[in-house]
Design brief:
Layout (H helix, E strand, L loop, with lengths): L2 H26 L6 E2 L4 E2 L8 H6 L1 H12 L4 H14 L8 E6 L27 E6 L2 E4 L5 H16 L6 E7 L9 H4 L5 H10 L5 E4 L2 H6 L15 H15 L10 E8 L10 H4 L3 E7 L4 E8 L6 E6 L23 E6 L6 E6 L2 H5 L9 E5 L8 H8 L3 E7 L6 H9 L3
Parallel strand pairs: 6-7, 6-15, 13-14, 13-15
Antiparallel strand pairs: 1-2, 3-4, 4-5, 8-9, 10-11, 10-12, 12-14
Helix pairs in contact: 5-7, 5-13
Length: 421
Amino acid sequence: MNKKSHISYLNVFIFLLIIYLFTILNLLTPKNKTISEVENRTLAQKPVYSLDNLLSGKYFRDFESFFADHFFDRENLVQISKDITTLKGIKREEEVYLVDFAGQNVGGNDNEDESKKPEDKNQVASTTGNLLILNDTVMELYKFNEEKSKLYADTINKVSGKLGENVKVYSMLVPIQIEFLTNEKYKNLSDSQLDAIKFVNDNFSDNIIPVDAYTPIKEHIDEYVYYRTDHHWTALGAYYGYLGFAATAELEAVPLNNYKKNEAQDYLGHISTVNPSETVNNNPDNVVYYVPPVKTDMQVFYYDKETGEKKSYKGDVINKKYVFLDQKYGIFLGGDFALGVIKTNVGTDKKIMVIKDSYGNAFIPFLTPHYSEIYVVDPRHYKESIDDLVNKNGIGEVLFLNYILTTNFDSFMDSLLNLTN
């Protein structure tokens, strides 16, 4: 037998050995995986045997798909293929995913342990709903519900009716990012927030003054006004919302360059954790924050979960501890809590209460140059009557500030109504 024959036999042996090894590995590979995270699709499952399926050939077709989807180390092989494609410089189509995401409901507070100080926790953003992931950006979708939008307006009407005639009441509904998407194909997955905000405002009582945050945000939409990996607006977006409030409340807006600008890098927001896109995870946000040009003193109140006792600790309007934590949106006020009382040195007798969801956190620092006292109420956690709080402290203005999705949350409306009990 010559040398050439030996090489041929060796090649055949190696080839058969590889096939044999992969056969064994495939037999040993668990077949219980249901989703491919790399491909963002459901994997074929083992077909159910029946005589009809066998005779029609469907059983073997389905089994072939099942075998292909559960091939040994398939996820890594697919990922390697994607990486090679990227290295070759082959242009991909748009990276688009639709994700059904049920995170912490913005209306609920069952997940909040108030026996601990909020500043001691890596708090997570509250959100729920469907997500659109388009290239490097994760966006919530909004669906208009006339009945619930009417209920939101009625709820604000009832709460404001308890505050007295001398209290000036404002309402700001903040749109979410997908409203300003230029790609109509994907924007049409979400309903018009402009129409929804108008509907809610039209159903307010005459004593409630709507604040237009929509227009100033739209005018600056080419700037960094929304995070790409989180459902919140940025501090810059909140500043433009503040300009809308200042115009409505007849305040002289403070220029942004009067604030000291700082930045925390590498922030991946809560909604980015459910996405299958490496493009998003490889392009984290930066959290820019602006330190107010006035002195502030903040006291935070919360309820002990076991005893119900009301406790407090010293807080910060800009909480720099969160610069070093994962949930960097906590830089603003230190996250969510039942009640925060901010006192400033501006030398005015103006006092305001802000009843808000987490969108209010980035907004409130911009109020500090205008008010001597700012009362921050999160209806999901506050367990007392706000009309007592208003009357006892001589609060002359109340602002309801929430993002548009709160109009769809029954539990958030229930929390608002509980503020009058």
